[in-house]
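Key idea: predict the complex, not the pieces.
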Amino acid sequence: AQSVAQPEDQVNVAEGNPLTVKCTYSVSGNPYLFWYVQYPNRGLQFLLKYITGDNLVKGSYGFEAEFNKSQTSFHLKKPSALVSDSALYFCAVRENTNAGKSTFGDGTTLTVKP
Amino acid sequence: EAGVAQSPRYKIIEKRQSVAFWCNPISGHATLYWYQQILGQGPKLLIQFQNNGVVDDSQLPKDRFSAERLKGVDSTLKIQPAKLEDSAVYLCASSPSGGATGYTFGSGTRLTVV
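Result:
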Protein backbone atom coordinates (compact mmCIF):
# COMPACT_ATOMS: atom_id res chain seq x y z
CA ALA A 1 0.00 0.00 0.00
CA GLN A 2 1.18 3.49 -0.75
CA SER A 3 1.61 6.15 1.92
CA VAL A 4 2.79 9.71 2.45
CA ALA A 5 4.35 11.26 5.55
CA GLN A 6 4.61 14.96 6.24
CA PRO A 7 6.63 15.00 9.46
CA GLU A 8 5.95 18.63 10.38
CA ASP A 9 2.45 19.80 11.30
CA GLN A 10 3.62 23.40 11.27
CA VAL A 11 6.43 25.33 9.58
CA ASN A 12 7.14 28.95 10.49
CA VAL A 13 9.43 31.19 8.46
CA ALA A 14 10.10 34.90 8.17
CA GLU A 15 9.19 36.70 4.98
CA GLY A 16 12.10 36.74 2.56
CA ASN A 17 13.71 33.62 4.01
CA PRO A 18 13.83 30.30 2.18
CA LEU A 19 11.24 27.69 3.10
CA THR A 20 11.14 23.91 2.98
CA VAL A 21 8.12 21.69 3.60
CA LYS A 22 9.09 18.04 3.93
CA CYS A 23 7.47 14.96 2.40
CA THR A 24 8.46 11.31 2.27
CA TYR A 25 6.55 8.57 0.50
CA SER A 26 6.19 4.84 0.02
CA VAL A 27 4.87 3.32 -3.20
CA SER A 28 5.47 0.32 -5.43
CA GLY A 29 7.39 1.14 -8.56
CA ASN A 30 8.10 4.60 -9.86
CA PRO A 31 5.90 7.25 -8.29
CA TYR A 32 3.99 10.21 -9.52
CA LEU A 33 4.38 12.93 -6.86
CA PHE A 34 2.34 16.07 -6.34
CA TRP A 35 2.06 19.11 -4.11
CA TYR A 36 -1.24 20.88 -3.49
CA VAL A 37 -2.03 24.04 -1.52
CA GLN A 38 -5.23 24.78 0.39
CA TYR A 39 -6.18 28.30 1.38
CA PRO A 40 -8.86 28.84 4.06
CA ASN A 41 -12.35 27.90 2.89
CA ARG A 42 -11.01 26.95 -0.53
CA GLY A 43 -10.49 23.65 -2.29
CA LEU A 44 -7.07 22.18 -2.93
CA GLN A 45 -5.07 23.72 -5.76
CA PHE A 46 -2.43 21.87 -7.75
CA LEU A 47 1.07 23.36 -7.33
CA LEU A 48 3.49 21.05 -9.10
CA LYS A 49 4.26 17.47 -10.00
CA TYR A 50 7.10 15.06 -10.60
CA ILE A 51 6.53 12.41 -13.23
CA THR A 52 9.95 11.67 -14.68
CA GLY A 53 13.14 13.42 -15.75
CA ASP A 54 14.84 16.28 -13.91
CA ASN A 55 14.73 15.80 -10.16
CA LEU A 56 14.05 19.49 -9.58
CA VAL A 57 10.60 20.52 -10.75
CA LYS A 58 9.17 24.01 -10.83
CA GLY A 59 5.57 24.96 -10.26
CA SER A 60 3.18 27.80 -9.55
CA TYR A 61 3.92 30.88 -7.45
CA GLY A 62 7.70 30.33 -7.48
CA PHE A 63 7.57 26.98 -5.72
CA GLU A 64 9.82 24.09 -6.63
CA ALA A 65 10.31 20.57 -5.33
CA GLU A 66 13.20 18.15 -5.33
CA PHE A 67 12.67 14.45 -5.95
CA ASN A 68 15.17 12.19 -4.18
CA LYS A 69 14.67 8.54 -5.07
CA SER A 70 17.18 7.12 -2.61
CA GLN A 71 15.60 8.99 0.29
CA THR A 72 12.04 8.58 -1.08
CA SER A 73 11.48 12.27 -0.49
CA PHE A 74 9.82 15.09 -2.38
CA HIS A 75 10.41 18.29 -0.39
CA LEU A 76 8.71 21.54 -1.38
CA LYS A 77 10.91 24.62 -1.48
CA LYS A 78 10.85 28.31 -2.22
CA PRO A 79 13.90 30.61 -2.19
CA SER A 80 12.10 33.61 -0.69
CA ALA A 81 8.84 33.23 1.24
CA LEU A 82 5.92 35.66 1.03
CA VAL A 83 3.27 36.31 3.67
CA SER A 84 0.71 35.27 1.04
CA ASP A 85 2.29 31.79 0.92
CA SER A 86 0.76 31.08 4.33
CA ALA A 87 -1.56 28.12 3.78
CA LEU A 88 -1.97 24.38 4.25
CA TYR A 89 0.23 22.24 1.98
CA PHE A 90 -0.41 18.63 1.03
CA CYS A 91 1.95 16.14 -0.56
CA ALA A 92 0.43 13.30 -2.58
CA VAL A 93 1.74 10.14 -4.21
CA ARG A 94 0.04 8.38 -7.05
CA GLU A 95 0.44 4.96 -8.54
CA ASN A 96 2.19 4.93 -11.89
CA THR A 97 -0.84 3.49 -13.67
CA ASN A 98 -3.47 4.88 -15.95
CA ALA A 99 -6.15 4.79 -13.26
CA GLY A 100 -3.93 5.28 -10.25
CA LYS A 101 -5.34 6.88 -7.14
CA SER A 102 -3.60 9.60 -5.13
CA THR A 103 -2.84 9.17 -1.44
CA PHE A 104 -2.41 12.40 0.51
CA GLY A 105 -0.36 13.29 3.56
CA ASP A 106 -2.01 14.96 6.53
CA GLY A 107 -0.74 18.38 5.55
CA THR A 108 1.69 21.00 6.84
CA THR A 109 0.56 24.46 7.86
CA LEU A 110 3.00 27.07 6.60
CA THR A 111 3.01 30.43 8.34
CA VAL A 112 5.12 33.23 6.91
CA LYS A 113 5.56 36.17 9.27
CA PRO A 114 6.32 39.70 8.11
CA GLU B 1 -12.24 26.92 -18.34
CA ALA B 2 -14.89 26.40 -15.68
CA GLY B 3 -13.75 24.63 -12.54
CA VAL B 4 -15.22 21.69 -10.67
CA ALA B 5 -18.60 22.69 -9.30
CA GLN B 6 -19.94 21.31 -6.04
CA SER B 7 -23.13 21.93 -4.11
CA PRO B 8 -24.19 22.62 -1.50
CA ARG B 9 -21.30 24.48 0.15
CA TYR B 10 -22.52 23.75 3.65
CA LYS B 11 -24.95 21.27 5.17
CA ILE B 12 -26.04 20.63 8.73
CA ILE B 13 -28.11 17.53 9.46
CA GLU B 14 -29.06 15.43 12.44
CA LYS B 15 -27.63 11.96 12.85
CA ARG B 16 -29.58 9.23 11.10
CA GLN B 17 -30.79 11.68 8.45
CA SER B 18 -29.75 11.39 4.82
CA VAL B 19 -27.81 13.86 2.69
CA ALA B 20 -26.66 14.12 -0.91
CA PHE B 21 -23.84 16.04 -2.53
CA TRP B 22 -23.52 16.95 -6.19
CA CYS B 23 -20.45 17.42 -8.37
CA ASN B 24 -19.99 18.63 -11.93
CA PRO B 25 -16.44 17.99 -13.16
CA ILE B 26 -14.46 19.87 -15.76
CA SER B 27 -15.82 19.17 -19.20
CA GLY B 28 -14.02 16.29 -20.85
CA HIS B 29 -12.40 14.96 -17.69
CA ALA B 30 -12.94 11.21 -17.69
CA THR B 31 -11.90 10.55 -14.11
CA LEU B 32 -13.85 11.77 -11.09
CA TYR B 33 -12.96 11.33 -7.43
CA TRP B 34 -14.76 11.84 -4.14
CA TYR B 35 -12.53 12.50 -1.14
CA GLN B 36 -13.43 12.90 2.53
CA GLN B 37 -11.33 15.39 4.50
CA ILE B 38 -11.74 15.26 8.26
CA LEU B 39 -10.44 18.28 10.16
CA GLY B 40 -6.69 18.00 10.72
CA GLN B 41 -6.24 15.17 8.23
CA GLY B 42 -5.44 14.83 4.57
CA PRO B 43 -8.10 13.93 2.02
CA LYS B 44 -9.04 10.24 1.95
CA LEU B 45 -10.31 8.67 -1.25
CA LEU B 46 -13.87 7.38 -1.05
CA ILE B 47 -14.54 6.44 -4.66
CA GLN B 48 -12.99 6.87 -8.10
CA PHE B 49 -14.92 6.78 -11.38
CA GLN B 50 -13.51 6.36 -14.87
CA ASN B 51 -16.27 7.68 -17.14
CA ASN B 52 -19.35 6.09 -15.54
CA GLY B 53 -17.62 2.99 -14.19
CA VAL B 54 -16.23 2.53 -10.67
CA VAL B 55 -12.46 2.03 -10.56
CA ASP B 56 -11.92 2.01 -6.80
CA ASP B 57 -14.43 2.09 -3.96
CA SER B 58 -12.42 0.07 -1.46
CA GLN B 59 -12.62 2.77 1.24
CA LEU B 60 -16.29 3.65 0.75
CA PRO B 61 -18.45 2.60 3.72
CA LYS B 62 -20.96 0.86 1.54
CA ASP B 63 -23.45 0.22 4.32
CA ARG B 64 -24.22 3.95 4.40
CA PHE B 65 -22.46 5.66 1.49
CA SER B 66 -23.37 5.38 -2.17
CA ALA B 67 -22.25 7.23 -5.28
CA GLU B 68 -23.13 7.28 -8.91
CA ARG B 69 -21.95 8.99 -12.05
CA LEU B 70 -24.67 8.87 -14.62
CA LYS B 71 -23.67 9.32 -18.26
CA GLY B 72 -20.05 9.79 -17.21
CA VAL B 73 -20.47 13.45 -16.29
CA ASP B 74 -22.14 14.66 -13.06
CA SER B 75 -21.87 12.65 -9.88
CA THR B 76 -23.77 12.42 -6.62
CA LEU B 77 -22.57 11.10 -3.28
CA LYS B 78 -25.17 10.07 -0.72
CA ILE B 79 -24.99 9.24 2.97
CA GLN B 80 -27.88 7.38 4.58
CA PRO B 81 -28.07 7.29 7.55
CA ALA B 82 -25.48 9.83 8.66
CA LYS B 83 -23.35 9.37 11.76
CA LEU B 84 -21.56 11.98 13.85
CA GLU B 85 -18.19 10.79 12.51
CA ASP B 86 -19.27 11.66 8.98
CA SER B 87 -18.74 15.34 9.78
CA ALA B 88 -16.09 16.40 7.27
CA VAL B 89 -15.49 18.26 4.05
CA TYR B 90 -16.40 16.23 0.98
CA LEU B 91 -14.22 17.10 -1.97
CA CYS B 92 -14.86 16.27 -5.58
CA ALA B 93 -11.97 16.28 -8.04
CA SER B 94 -11.54 15.45 -11.70
CA SER B 95 -8.68 14.76 -14.07
CA PRO B 96 -8.21 13.77 -17.69
CA SER B 97 -7.56 10.11 -18.42
CA GLY B 98 -4.07 9.05 -17.53
CA GLY B 99 -2.12 9.24 -14.31
CA ALA B 100 0.37 12.01 -14.97
CA THR B 101 -1.83 15.04 -14.34
CA GLY B 102 -2.78 16.84 -11.17
CA TYR B 103 -6.35 16.87 -9.99
CA THR B 104 -8.66 19.86 -10.15
CA PHE B 105 -10.66 20.08 -6.94
CA GLY B 106 -13.98 21.72 -6.23
CA SER B 107 -14.46 23.95 -3.20
CA GLY B 108 -16.01 21.11 -1.25
CA THR B 109 -19.12 20.58 0.85
CA ARG B 110 -18.73 21.02 4.60
CA LEU B 111 -21.02 18.54 6.36
CA THR B 112 -21.83 18.85 10.03
CA VAL B 113 -23.77 16.00 11.65
CA VAL B 114 -25.32 16.91 15.01
